[in-house]
């Protein structure tokens, strides 16, 4: 599996898209959104597709990142250099706590999914009730008329595109490195058969926790970016279940067993939905299309589009299967 | 919080508990028999609510009577859902199952948005504002009717499950699918009926609820989540567990709402869920392992 | 009495049911040892206690001088005691080589070292041709061999085999037995849980017989099998 080469190709495509998008503010916006959702979906899928931990409450970490930045900027005037690491640190700590609680009690499958959802909802309602965090109205980040690198405030969109593009490529690179390392093998082993993995020396709790914390950290990074890009956060946009479901949708449609599968899902669906939103007279029409696509693909093509393509490509260069097996080597 | 307010909260909480129990029982039945969690459960409640509303606004039928219309329709929908979607979903891994029912939930919500618009709809009747006085507690008539109907239906369901052959067959499949199949039970027929009942029960709650609450495309989601909490707290697949879970959630939510704010009250069921998941994931009533 | 694996007065109760009662025996380094007994005698419970899947209610289990009772399975594996599963548990999303690599990572951190180690195990077991095949395309005998390959890749001192011959044809079983017989020569002791007395007699030097959760007899295989109490316990299943 020449995964590294694939990541290089994907990285190249990202750079090419960025350069193409420079021509138009609108395209750049689409590029930014695609990279944003793509990174989120890839980080979500590190847990779900590669480690077998399906989280339905991942918006929690996006929200932590976004609100840390928004509150830090509006209430304290802190720059991103302070608020971004803060947001990521809080998110990683939250994942550590939630993970320790869940994995200690061996929560899996549906139960883990619903537990994460519950934590997300608690956060959603707590933030909606919190005056300091703007309640349901949300927080607006202070903006000035001048561009500021320190505060990550630009009139043009392309600097934001650059940032999120780099985040995406970094995420893919980190993911690829981990996949070929012991960590990646242990994650996949935990996904395929946790009991066997433990019997073969894998510390299930520790590795699941590691995955959870990494995924949460990346999601928080994205949340922080969102706050600076949109300059407004509210519970519905960064803590809502819809966000978590989007990560699921892109991953299933793109393919969950590959690192870059979710990115493919985002690339196929995000520009499409932006386009539909502009031309469709039906409100929410694109979501109806999504939903149908999701149901059909989850049933018919469980490996997603990327998985299907990869399997077909592998079959073309397939090795013939040997019959029987040789007797064991006699030791001297 | 005075004692009077506390009692009022308890009264309201108990009434809610009955309604929640009826909503949750469908979810637990489907899981108990088919081992699938239907994330779109609340959306069918939403459809039933709209059904009740339109029966009233277009046909002038009293919501309580609309039940007779909406329930069979919903039961049929449940069967249809099984034949077209759920039947295939049972064969794919859990993660894909979740994706299917989540997708269904999204689909129904947005179809409703298209057909019914996002406006809130409420059935208003003279009796809606009337209240029944029970000692220090006042309960709205509509609330009481919904509560009473829920208890009645829960009782009927209990009797059906425990006393009839139909119920026996369902319990057999829930306990051991292969054993039941070997005994000659037609599993897919049982599944179809489980979905029919599981979704059909929402046909009773829906029309009654729309006299109490606004109907809008997204109202289902909140009920789905609450139903989850109830079902997991009480134990997936356990009928008695649903009653206990509903009592806990209904009361806790109501008392928290009276004591603290509404937003905090909304978070209370989830806090309970987290506690239960961590301390006793198999639920309070269920002895079978959740893991 | 010392040994690589020592069980001292190990008991396990499930609620009111006493599945294991005061079980003690030793297994020395480099020997092939059998745990035999009728169905329901507690062999699986015993096995799971040693492997770390269950925690004994009483007693101690020592491996290489360290207590392992109640420790998590992954820790026990890193100490050098590894088990296989009777119902095979391959990693279905991975190839044969990747399956073994996972186990090899227990001893090698760098992917390249782990891959080499996995390759060596594959070669040793005559499975090189299968390296790139997906685990879910193998048949039962091949999967059993994969189980052992994975276990061996963790470079254990003691290997626990749970009913490794179940579901194999006589030819496949013979090959499997030959494989097991080779292991002490590589410094790996083996504990075999087995039903079949002829297999145990040909493969194992020493054995312990468990009935109703208690040790009925322990010692050299031939003596243990000839013991009248053991023959009675098996109700004539032992062929004289």
Radius of gyration of chain B using CA atoms only:
19 Å
Number of domains of chain A: 1
Instruction: Please give the count of helices of chain B.
Output: 12
Low-confidence stretches of chain A: 320-332
Q: What's the CATH class label of chain B?
A: Mainly Alpha
Share in β-strands of chain A: under 5%
The spatial strand order of the largest sheet of chain A comes to: 1-2
Structural class of chain B: mainly alpha
Strand arrangement across the biggest beta sheet of chain B = 1-2
Poorly predicted segments of chain B: 287-291
User: What is the helix/strand order of chain A?
Assistant: HHHHHEHHHHEHHHHH
Oligomeric state of shown chains: heterotrimer
Structural class of chain A: mainly alpha
**H/E series of chain B, N to C?**
HHHHEEHHHHHHHH
Average pLDDT number of chain A: 86
Structure, described:
With 332 residues, chain A is mainly alpha-helical. Helix content of chain A is 73%, strand content 1%. Chain A has a single domain, classed as ABC transporter involved in vitamin B12 uptake, BtuC (Orthogonal Bundle), CATH 1.10.3470. Chain A has helices at 3-21, 25-51, 59-76, 80-104, 109-129, 158-180, 182-192, 194-199, 204-230, 235-238, 241-254, 261-279, 285-300, 304-316, and strands at 139-140, 232-233. Chain A has a two-stranded antiparallel ribbon with strand order 1-2. The longest helix of chain A is centred in the first third of the chain and has 27 residues, at 25-51. Chain A is globular and about 60 Å long. Mean pLDDT of chain A is 86; it is low at 320-332. The longest helix of chain B is centred in the first third of the chain and has 32 residues, at 3-34. Mean pLDDT of chain B is 84; it is low at 287-291. Chain B has one domain: ABC transporter involved in vitamin B12 uptake, BtuC, CATH 1.10.3470. Chain B has a two-stranded antiparallel ribbon. Chain B is an all-alpha fold and 291 residues long. The relative contact order of chain B is 0.20. Chain C has a domain at 5-90 and 159-233: P-loop containing nucleotide triphosphate hydrolases (Rossmann fold, 3-Layer(aba) Sandwich). Chain C contains nine helices and ten strands. Chains in contact: A-B, A-C. The A-B interface holds A 48, 54, 56, 101-102, 105-111, 113-115, 117-119, 121-122, 125-126, 128-129, 241, 245, 248-249, 252, 256, 282-285, 287-288, 290-292, 294-295, 298-299, 302 and B 37, 85, 88-89, 92-100, 102-104, 106-107, 110-111, 113-114, 221, 225, 228-229, 232, 261, 263-264, 266-267, 270-271, 273-274, 277-279, 281, 290-291.
